[in-house]
Specification:
This protein is mainly beta. It is 0% helix and 52% strand. It contains no helices and 11 strands. Strands 2, 4, 5, 6, 9, 10 and 11 form a 7-stranded mixed beta sheet that branches. The chain has a 4-stranded antiparallel beta sheet with strand order 1-3-8-7, with no helix packed on it. Strand 4 (32-39) and strand 5 (46-52) form a beta hairpin.
Length: 123
Amino acid sequence: QVQLVESGGGLVQAGGSLTLSCAVSGRTLWSSAVGWFRRPPGKEREFVAGIVGSTGHTNYVDSVSGRFTISRDLHKNTVLLQMNSLKPEDTAVYYCAARPFIASMSEGDYDYWGQGTQVTVSS
């Protein structure tokens, strides 16, 4: 059974930093692609960043490029999302998701999801 567990969310002031963690069990990162998505209040869920487990290739939505960094630890089977220079518009529930091998920006392509972690950025 594949499980994803997010942690690291919280309340931070604008300009601050947070690191989210996604622990994956039941499936190796080597054979997976992992994406981070977020759902801002009153809005639809959107893609934030993704990483291919085998190659480390990454991609980002324009609004976070240069501020967020996604990385993976193959030994710990964990994916991190380092978020710097946070803005109030980054406030959302953040989810990690996994799918086999190939990265995608479409949430419909992901088979496994975590429960989400709240990130709140105050102005």
